[in-house]
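Structure first, sequence second, as always.
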């Protein structure tokens, strides 16, 4: 019954997808609703753009998301946005709901509960991994997973700090160790690095601090087990070509699946700013996940861009994400980012 309900949902909601296409693992692939055929897992990452409830939290700066705040945020608007995000997440899965989902810009556990325990996600029994961070805006990252496909063994927040700076606060990096299909160990990292607010010179050290904190744990894993299966996902607020992101791959068996040579020529991406598309939402994996004779990345990464997630860009031309807010105005859209995902398949 659950699968029949899901198929009906897909027939209603999935619309032709616009993505880049490459034939290699380091590149983009077209959306394929049947790619894993029940034998693998789809890992999705989505920056939800300010998924806040309308309740006041005295420990956070969430005044803008109150009924009398800048966004005139109400329970009705929140539940509409949560349902819209859930629709997108289910659509990314193809003929099956995605097995693992990384999320950014989540206010709290209550928001996640509203997301997974209501329709349309409720029938699929998603579980939650989430920790409250010290981010000044009050936003966190989180992981959702289907327990029939993924078992959590351990999880922890990785706190990002800058030496001798007691004021700096940002999102934690979420680390989750688990088993795919009950037997295959894997390490997942959900990221939302600091933005470029204030300019490159001021903000770059903040992203570099996030990179260093991430690598502390990654390097420890690789030292203990060089063939560790590692998936790094998230909004890095920088492109694959930036020196901060490339620093992750330096002298390490890590591959950025979004890093392709013709990216600058592309009119596609996961995020559009001042008329220019870029890929700041990324997947970086260990080389062990590229071996075809065991659990591996199936072809490459996908930017999920069905037509309902895009609207005409009247200022710069082309299309842009149908976001939730334009200034203080709620548009009824989804997010200023597009989801990205990879498939891991096992030939055995």
């Amino acid at each position: 019954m659950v699968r029949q309900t899901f198929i009906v949902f897909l027939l209603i909601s999935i619309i032709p997808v616009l993505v880049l296409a490459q034939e290699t693992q380091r590149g983009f692939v077209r959306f394929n609703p049947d790619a894993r055929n029940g034998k693998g897992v789809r890992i999705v990452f989505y920056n939800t753009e300010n998924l806040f409830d309308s309740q006041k939290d005295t420990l956070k700066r969430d005044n803008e998301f109150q009924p009398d705040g800048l966004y005139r945020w109400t329970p009705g608007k929140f539940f509409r946005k949560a349902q819209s995000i859930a629709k997108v997440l289910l659509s990314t899965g193809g003929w099956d709901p995605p097995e693992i989902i990384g999320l950014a810009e989540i206010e709290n556990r209550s928001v996640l509960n509203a997301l997974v325990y209501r329709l349309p996600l409720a029938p699929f029994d998603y579980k939650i991994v989430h920790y409250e961070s010290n981010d000044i805006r009050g936003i966190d990252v989180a992981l959702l997973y289907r327990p029939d496909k993924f078992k959590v063994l351990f999880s922890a927040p990785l706190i990002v700090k800058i030496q001798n700076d007691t004021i700096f606060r940002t999102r934690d990096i979420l680390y989750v160790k688990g088993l795919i299909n009950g037997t295959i160990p894997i390490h997942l990292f959900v990221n939302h690095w600091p933005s470029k607010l204030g300019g490159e010179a001021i903000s770059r050290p903040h992203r570099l601090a996030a990179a260093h904190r991430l690598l502390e744990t990654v390097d420890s894993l690789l030292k203990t087990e060089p063939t560790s299966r590692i998936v790094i996902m998230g909004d890095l607020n920088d492109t694959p070509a930036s020196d901060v992101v490339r620093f992750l791959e330096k002298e390490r068996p890590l591959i950025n699946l979004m890093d392709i040579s013709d990216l600058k020529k592309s009119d596609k991406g996961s995020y559009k700013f001042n008329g220019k598309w870029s890929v700041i939402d990324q997947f970086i994996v260990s080389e062990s996940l590229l071996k075809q004779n065991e659990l591996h990345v199936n072809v490459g990464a996908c930017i999920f861009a069905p037509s309902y997630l895009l609207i005409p860009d009247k200022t710069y031309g082309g299309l842009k994400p149908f976001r939730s807010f334009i200034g203080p105005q709620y548009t009824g859209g989804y997010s200023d980012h597009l989801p990205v995902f990879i498939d891991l398949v096992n030939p055995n």
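Margin note: The chain is about 20% helix and 30% strand.
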